Amino acid sequence: MARAGQSLHDLAVSSFPEQQDVTPEWLASALGIDAVPEVEQRSIGTGQVGENIRYTLTWPDGTDGPTTVVGKFPSPDLTSRETAAATGSYVKEVGFYRDLQAGLSIPTPKVLALHEDLANNRFLLLMEDIAPAEQGDQLLGCSVEEAALAVDALVGLHAPRWNDATLLDLEWVSGRTPERATETAGLYAMLFPGFVERYGERLGDDVVAVGARLGNVIETWFTSFQTPQTLIHGDYRLDNMLFGTHPAAPLTVVDWQTASVGHGPADLAYFLGAGLVPDVRREAEAGFVARYSDAMEAAGVSVPAAQIQHDYVMGSATGYLMAVIASMIVGRTDRGDEMFCVMAERHADQMSTAEFFTHLGQ
User: Fold this and answer.
1) Closest-CA residue to 45 (of 323, 237, 325, 282)
2) Picking from 31-35, 74-78, 307-311, which range would have the lowest pLDDT averaged per residue?
3) Distance from the CA of 31 to the CA of which of 140, 256, 312, 327 falls in 20 to 30 A?
């Protein structure tokens, strides 16, 4: 826990345990408490790139300490861990909490301790436990009411750093550049055949055809957005959200390993495309795009609604792109397989409904 005058920068040190080596003594020290608790732990969530552990703490009588905290660590899966090193996922998550969290109003967990040894692809985040919140379920989708919470929260991420060129002064922050467009197109072309081989029968010809067509236009698509850039989540979906039962904390957004500079409406499209089942999304999405546009205006960001709508349509492709690339570069699980298939199906439907290729001029 940060002491008076101590920042997260001060806490970023290389001497810290791996997940399997965390002890009650270390947890007490990290929290700044002299007494040592009894500790029970269990994994929570099904992260593809990181591992989350909930620690239940029983303190000696008279000790004022949290009853639960959450630790986030690198994935124990070697493939996922190597992918994180290649993509800078751990660097981005640590950087978000260290450098950017304090200046945003999107609801995020309070960080109690942050440790990093990123040269060796290691980190440890100790955070408050948002209990009794429940993690969203990417496969089941969410209600319109839950979607409204997520759409409103996006404004607290996008508005504070809208069109802020200083974001790129942070070494770990990446932006949308011609070089990145070429790299993304090449990576997609390399991975798409394996994606089809693995999932094609499950997805069907129509969904696969959308992905094949997308692969031919990625570089054009990359430069087609119209809104100014801002800080984006990059993986804004239900599995990265905690829905609370307390009115003061109805939603908390986690997993910032894909934070970057990009276009805000793409986060919106990514969420709605994957988070709402297609029938519900088709009925509700126009209202949610308008809701986002109005809320950004109320937050002091003046941008034409037509630009937001255009970038929402362009953003409908981000989920299919993520499904292809992520599924091929992280450790494989049964739930992960189903999640990537559902993403591809729902975003293919979203792209078709939005007439993505027509708007792109293809």
Assistant:
1) 237
2) 74-78
3) 256
- Distance in angstroms (rounded) separating the CA atoms of residues 67 and 97: 23
What predicted TM-score, i.e. pTM, was given to this entire model?
0.90
Contacts of residue 35, Cβ cutoff 8 Å, sequence gap at least 6: 28, 59, 60, 63, 65
Number of H helices, E strands in the chain: 14, 10
C-alpha distances out from residue 8 to 114, 125, 190, 290, 302, Å? 6, 11, 39, 37, 33
Give the Cα separation of 301 and 16 in Å (integer): 42
Give yes or no for a contact between 185 and 217, defined as CB atoms under 8 angstroms apart: no
Q: Six-digit token pair at 52?
A: 């989350």
CB atoms within 10 A of CB 218: 18
The pLDDT, as a whole number, for residue 1 is: 32
Pair 22, 48: CB distance under 8 Å: no
Strands (E), 272-348: none
Question: Residue 44 to residues 10, 16, 233, 234: CA-CA distances in angstroms?
Answer: 28, 21, 21, 22
